[in-house]
Every structure is written in structure tokens, then in C-alpha cells.
Design a protein that fits this description.
Two copies of one chain form a homodimer.
Chain A lengths: L4 H5 L9 H9 L3 E4 L12 H7 L15 H12 L10 E5 H13 L5 E6 L3 H9 L3 E6 L11 H6 L5 E7 L11 H13 L3 E5 L24 E6 L11 E6 L2 H13 L5 H10 L4 H23 L5 E2 L7 E5 L5 H11 L5 E4 L1 E2 L13 E5 L4 H17 L6
Amino acid sequence: MYISNRAKRLLNSPIRKLVPFANAAKKAGKKVYHLNIGQPDIATSEHFLEAIRNYDAKVIAYGDSKGDPKLIEAICKYYRQYGADYSPEHVHITNGGSEALQLAVETTCDPGDEVILFEPFYANYSTFVNQTNARVVTVSTSVENGYRLPPRDVVERSITSNTTAIIITNPGNPTGLVLTKKEMRMISDLVLKYDLALIVDEVYREFCYEGEFKSFSSMPELDDHLIMVDSVSKRYSACGARIGCLICKNALFNQQIIKFCQARLCCPTLEMLGATALYDTDAQYFADVKKEYQKRRDTLVECMGKLPGVQFGVPQGAFYMMVKFPVDDAEKFAIWLLQDFDVDGETVMFAPGNGFYGNPNFGQQEARLAYVINSEDIKKAVYILGEALKNYPGRTK
Amino acid sequence: MYISNRAKRLLNSPIRKLVPFANAAKKAGKKVYHLNIGQPDIATSEHFLEAIRNYDAKVIAYGDSKGDPKLIEAICKYYRQYGADYSPEHVHITNGGSEALQLAVETTCDPGDEVILFEPFYANYSTFVNQTNARVVTVSTSVENGYRLPPRDVVERSITSNTTAIIITNPGNPTGLVLTKKEMRMISDLVLKYDLALIVDEVYREFCYEGEFKSFSSMPELDDHLIMVDSVSKRYSACGARIGCLICKNALFNQQIIKFCQARLCCPTLEMLGATALYDTDAQYFADVKKEYQKRRDTLVECMGKLPGVQFGVPQGAFYMMVKFPVDDAEKFAIWLLQDFDVDGETVMFAPGNGFYGNPNFGQQEARLAYVINSEDIKKAVYILGEALKNYPGRTK
């Protein structure tokens, strides 16, 4: 039986591939602080389960392929409060932001087409591009420069006649970078000059701790090029609901996307019901959640700043930080932490950084830390990291 | 902005593309009998909502990429009662049978590879193949022959050096065909001779009304080639739950498939919980449901048999029938029924047949009828079809 090159070429998720080591550590009695995955411990807004518990139809029937009209209306309303004027024909509900990204790539890329990613990037972007046999072209950013975007000419050099799309997150995963207006204008100019699709993942838009978050949806010149990816996962701490959406004003794109949606029939009926109710969550919930994340970020930044030889970009948004450890190889360091190290029976798990780069030789000293655990646990986790760095045999300086 | 050829090449779902006409008919006050979509009116097993209502965790968290271990165990147990010996490493939970099919194709086909479908086929098979830039190669069956598979040499002629997989449903959608042991051996021989993947959709396995359903999983010689697609949608009348699975004993396949699963993170946490509970449904539920469908099938077969000039294959399983109408074009006939015809304010919707063929010039007089409405409504719907055939301007004989 033939196994496709498409499949073989994909990499295991850097966020999940060390799970077997973590499970072994737990089995051996160790407590593991999880900094590897963006699974918040924040309670899901109660509206979600309440709506589902009140569901009383006898048949859990197929929904609309485009998505539940009430959910679509709730999303339009959400965007209107930020001045973005979307109507129901612009919105398609998807199985999480993940499917939205897949469908956006499938609709804008043929095999061999090129998609630009700023590295380090959310690892699954690369998987979704490879899944369609398009090619990832990376533009590098670095810890030394706080992971800020490079100048326009550097980005422009990566565009070829095969480039069809740019994918970018804002606020950024894994860097926590919030784009400046200047960076956004630079991208917008290139998108218009080369007639590209701009696939923008703004799922962390409510989580901005420094400066001002500005959405690409506020730039009307992008209307025909902008494909927005959104999700309830992080905003309402409902990752397991798997409800996201694609938002786009390009009519030709929307004509095509519905065919993909029809083929997979629909998103789960109950989850769409729960997600609709989430949009009734009041502003205080966001204010509280944002305050909590800000506290965690401040704690992480303060504690990490005290570790000798460790470099990082201060995250302005989302809930991730990219760090560069003074070690030979961050993946080896991660495995060593799980297998061979503990402080009073406790250790730490993080996502090795090279999985967030297009070239596996890049980011080898780096790691992504998710600050989705409480501040006290963050302090303990960073203390353990500090002790580990003193003892790790592969320490480089 | 570039729109991919992949997207443009896809067809609108024949099952859903006439929905706007149906909506207009309803708006104009007509009652529409829906024979177009396989959405049963049978009540979902109560275990589903009960399990979800009892969920009391504070956070709706990400699940395992491979699927909830309890659900996987329930699926293994279900198969064991039929003598199929699957263990948890052979099972991956998917977003409905739809995602299972997509992932199976993505893992076994590169662009340009060929997948064999017996036409008429479930239309979305072709979409999933085209979505990956693989090619559909069809082997025709016909109403005149009761949609039975052609002889081995005809099937073998369609296999080339680019063929990597065969996709087949059993019991069949849209024909209701249940494969004979001889047909299954013929397919199995060819799969082994040419080292192909056999992607088998057995989601209707509980619905067999004539003869004996035999699963491909009962043929151990296929162990390294068989990729089973299953789903709770039809079996438990839980189409809107969107929980399916991929079952395969080929270790290399399973090594690859997990990478796709990791990229889209997980299936919905609550739906997996509900689906797990569905597997506790007792045998009486199936017996009752099967009896009900059998009654509907018998009613449909009897009533359709009285319409002059109409040919059809008697379905042995599932809940669909392919019919050939004495009309110029079944799609025009379907639109005419919705727009221009009614009997006492009532009309009928069905899925035009050409969408179930690889060549759009095939099946133009055919239609798929889903007998998912009760027997009294089936009688009324067929009566309306009969009256419509007397009055339709495009009647051919």
C-alpha cells in the first residue's frame, strides 16, 4: 500500500510530540508543569454548557454547511463593535481555526504555489501548507531583534511569481508579537502590489497587554485580499469546542469555499449552539481574563529575566513567549527535563523551538513557553528551568 | 488574489445545491418532502445528550489528537462483537466520516495519483479526491444491472501504475447495494495484486435488509491494505455530532495519520463524550430502527414500482435508492418540482443523479432518493412524483 510523500513530509507537532515523555514522567511519579501547549486553565464561559444543556430536539441533525445562521450573526455583531462591517455572506463556520486555515490554503494555493510565513511561526501553518502540496517560504525573525518583522525589501525578496498567500498571526503565536501599524502597512502594500491573499489569524485579538492591537480588518484597501481566521477557542477558553470561522469579503473566494464546506457536510450542531451563546459573554469576563494573563506574562518576564544566559522576546500579546536557552539543543534539553531531572519530584515541559521554523537547523536553542498556568506555578516552573540549566550536561555558556 | 484550480474544479454537492430552490418553495408556502438528504428523522439515542448534560469540568479543554481513549475503546468493543479484532492503536477519531475519508486519501495519494470509484458514488468521495489533487477514475455500474459491480476484467482495466486506492461503500450510498462475497473477493484480489489501499466506508453496516452484510474487516488477507471509515452519524441517528473514525492495521499508515490529526489538534471534546455513550445503546434500538427503515424501503419499492417508465435498483441496505426517471434531465425536473409544481401545496425534493457520476453527462436521468421520512410521507411523496411525471414538460417517454 502506497503512503503519500505528502504525509511522510509532514512533521510531528512540536507542541505534542514530547507527550509520550511527559506521560512516562508522570507515570514515574513526577509532577509536570505544562508550558508546551496553549490550553488555558481559565474556566470556559458558562453560557456554553448552559446552551447545550437546554437543547431539547429529539434528533441531533446535520446543520447548515455554511454554519448556524445564529452563530454567524453573533460573529458579525462581535466584529461590528470593533467597527468591522461583515455580513452573513462573508462568514463560514469551521471546525476550529484549524479547518479555517486549511480551507483558506486549499482555496488560494495549487500544488507548487508558495506561501510566505514569518518564522518562528505556529507550526501547524506549515503542515496545512504542505498538506495541500503548496510550499512554505520563510522570512526569518530573531530573538536578538525581539522577533520584529524585517524591513520591506527583505520580505519583498521572498515573493516570487509562485507566491499566492501570506499567513500571519497577530498577536503572534509563538512570539507574542503585536504588529505595529507600520508593519501592517508594509504587509498590506506588498499584498496589494503582488495581488496576494493575506490569511490573518487574529484568534488572540482580545489578549494584548502592550501598545494597541489593530486588526487587519480595519484596512478597507485589503477587502478583496483579506481572509480572516477566528475561533472561540482562546477567546472564551473553549479550545475543545472546535468552533472557528473564515471571514472574507472576496465574493469569488466565498463562492469556492462553500464547496469544501458542503463536502464535509457541517460543523457539530451542539458546539455551534454553545459557541453562539459564548458571544453573549460580557465584557467583564474579558477584562478579568486579560488581567490574569497580563499578571502571568509579567511574572514570566520577570522570572525569566533573572536566568543567566537566557534570551527572549517580551510578548506584547497572546500567551506565548519564545526563549533562547544556553543549551546545545532545546529538544534534547526538553527530553532531559522529563526523563532525567526534577526538583523535589517536579519538572517542566515546553515545546522545542525548531518545530516553529521552516529549516530544522534553525531555532535549535529556542523553545516556546505558553503562560497558561497560574503565576505561582509559573514561578515554580521557571525556578525548575533555572536549576535545570545549572545541571544540564549540554549547557553551552 | 489567486483562486486555486483545485477549488474551481470542485462541484457543488448534488445533495445540497438545490437547497436555495427548496427554501424559495417553502417561502412561497409549499410543503417540501425531503428525499434529497440522508438526515434521518429517527430520534438520536438518548445516551448522547445525557452524557453531555452530565459533563461538569470547568474548562472545555483540548482532547487527545488521536481521540478520546474511552471512545476508541468503545469502538474496539463494538467491532469485537462482530469478530473484528481491533485495538486502540488501530483507531483514530475524526470529524465525522467525512474527515476520515479526507485523511485516508491524503495519506495514500500524491497529486496525480488515481483513485478508483464505482459510479454512481457518494458525491463527496470525488470532492475529497480532487481536494488532494489526486484523480478520480470511475468504473461504471448501471440501473439496468441493479448497480452490481462489473466483472473483474472490467475493474482491472481501470487500474494503472498511478492507481493507489479504491474507495467503496458497503452497504452502498447512493445505490443501497450490499456487496456479495464474490464481489468482495474480486476487489480483495485486485487490491492485493496491485498493492492498493482499500478505503471502505461501512457507516451503513447496521442497515442491511436483504442477504447478509459481510464486512471487509472479516478478510484478514486485507489487514495491511484496509482502511475502514466509520461514523456514529447514521448508526445512532447522530449526524450533527460529526464523530467518525479511521480504523487501520497498517502500522506505517497509522504513523502518518497522527500527524494530520495533530495539526487540526482534536475533535470536539463534548461530542466525543456523547459518542462514547452512544456505544452503550442496546441491541433493541438497532432492531427497532432497522425494522422502521425496512418498512420504508418496502413502501418506497412498492410505490415506485407502480410508476410507469421509472427504473430503479432495489436497495438491499443503507437508506437510499437510485432511480432513473423518464425525463430529459433530472436536475431540471427537480428544479421544476420545487419551482413550478405542487399537489395541494406539496412537492418533493431529491438529489439529481449526475452529481454521483464522474462524467457529468452520465446519470442525467437519474436521482438519489433517501428514504429517511416515514412511510406515510413516502407514499405521499411518490404520489406527487407520479403526478409530476404526468405533467412535466420534459417527459421523454
